[in-house]
Amino acid sequence: MRFLKKLICLTAVVFAISCMLSGIYIFRPDIMDQIELFLDPEQKDAETITGNHDPQEETVSHTDESAEREETRQESEEYETGEKEPLENDVIGESVVSDYILPKQSEIVVPENVSGRNGYQQIQEKREQIDDEDAKELQNQIDTGYTGDGLDFDGAQYPYYAMLDDRGKHIYRQIYANANERYAAFMPVEPITLGQLKNVFLAVYNDHPELFWLETAYSCKYLRDGRCVEIHLEFNRTAQNIEDAKAVFQENASQIVSEARNLSSDYEKEKFVHDKLTERVSYDLGAEMNQSAYSALVNGRTVCAGYARAFQYLLQQLGIPCYYCTGYAGEAHAWNIVALDDGYYNVDVTWDDSDGGRYDYFNKTDTDYADSHIRQELSVYLPPCNGSVYRNLERNPEDSSLRSIADFGMTEDQILTDMDSYYKDCYDQILQNGKGSYTFYNVIENEQLLEEWHRAYEAEHYKQAYMENAMIQLGISSCEMKMEIEELRDGKFLITHKVSVR
Fold first, then answer.
1. Is 223 left (phi over 0), alpha (psi -120 to 50) or beta?
2. Where are the alpha helices (DSSP H) in 261-402?
3. Is the distance from CB of 438 to CB of 495 less than 8 angstroms?
4. Less CB within 10 Å around the terminal CB: N or C of the chain?
5. Region of residue 377 (phi > 0: left; psi between -120 and 50: alpha; otherwise: beta)
């Protein structure tokens, strides 16, 4: 009897399992396949041969899907960075080249007395991707604003404008015109991508310190293909009462410019502006609107960007080309490049405004700056700084160890007291030395004669006074000469001539 009961129970269990497997086979054949593979692993190889399951198709399908996802990801990144578009890769003109020799950042050493005196903020852009439908709706809400048509900018005063191609210049003029009128949102007048727009905005910002109400940030709405459909400028609080802000800005700038205009040479005007800024402005990392010339000239407290933009603006008003240069000096930093009659010079007013005012970074060459400053962004396209005539003319207050004429083996009777004597001495020394590369010296009497020498040099009087005749006498067709000035004791000045005669 007990055996019969057990047999009935076993039969019921087998029946139940059979029903369950049948249900799985009908409704979930995939699970049934896995069970069969588990019970008979060799069946997996048999399936491959008989074609019941095609792993080739599954592999191909998976590969296509992965490739599609990868392509989509790459396209997304390309559109996001603005690199995939039917436009040119950039808006920099094809003829623009950089002759600037880039120092190694690893070799930069910031002197302790100026460490931390930086504060330059790079241009910030805010991006928002929109679809075609939103773009069409946006076109009904905004226009191109002020296009800037009819405007033009001299490349000698506005070098960043000169770097751009025609399309970039058109957008540049539009951004300038709208910023000048404080017209915040507008459509670009030319097709332009995200990366291109950033270069154009940077060019406008770097060229125009008078737009002190323009912030270092802007917004851009763009399509999936990377094209910008709206540019939105940002302004600081001075834009809310712009006429009053302009008036106080001009009043403070004019106080310096009006005094500088009375000076005889560009060098003297440049030095005067440099000294006035170090006298009137204080470095303050927390200063309001510290990226603007307004913070320096009106508020008197700023960072490197404010010093550099104020210096740029004041020299522009004096007709002296002065450029806003950005890069790295231990941190993001800004300084200036100034054009004088014999070439370009680096000037860092921020770093000179320490210890009561100095000239450690005034009118220096790229070689002088190579261990402390590196240009970056569009500033690498600014001219190299190799001027020599106005380098190291100024000395710091504690530098009392001026050399004397005796240090050069010269006596009092060799000191030159007028320009005619100077010209004759140069002529005689060139004829005496003849062809080749060499250095000779003159010492002139006082600062008044030095100013006369500066004016004569600017007018290139030396060519007719002695150089052309010396070349004829030596039978040469080419002569290069660089001159440097050094202050000596008793108010005298040494003129060093480095000559290459071929």
1. beta
2. 266-280, 293-294, 304-317, 349-352, 366-369
3. no
4. N
5. left
Instruction: Return the pLDDT at 56.
Output: 34
Tokens of 370: 């190579």
**78-to-70, 73, 75, 90, 431 alpha-carbon distances in Å:** 12, 9, 5, 14, 65
The Cα-based distances of 278 to 335, 354, 380, 429, 497 in angstroms read 14, 8, 27, 41, 32
* Low-confidence stretches of the chain (pLDDT beneath 70): 1-89, 397-401
Contact 300, 281 (CB under 8 A): yes
Task: Specify the pLDDT at position 10.
Answer: 54
Q: What is the mean pLDDT of the chain?
A: 84
pLDDT of 16: 56
If you count them, how many residues does the chain have?
502
pLDDT confidence of residue 17: 56
**Residue-level pLDDT at 256:** 97
The Cα-based distances of 173 to 71, 153, 164, 219 in angstroms read 37, 9, 11, 18
Reading the block at residue 437, the tokens are 């590369």
What does residue 416 show for φ and ψ, rounded to 5 degrees?
Answer: -90, 135
Pairing of strands 185-186, 228-235: antiparallel
pLDDT number for residue 400: 54
> For residue 56, how many C-alpha atoms fall within 13 Å in the half-sphere facing its CB?
5
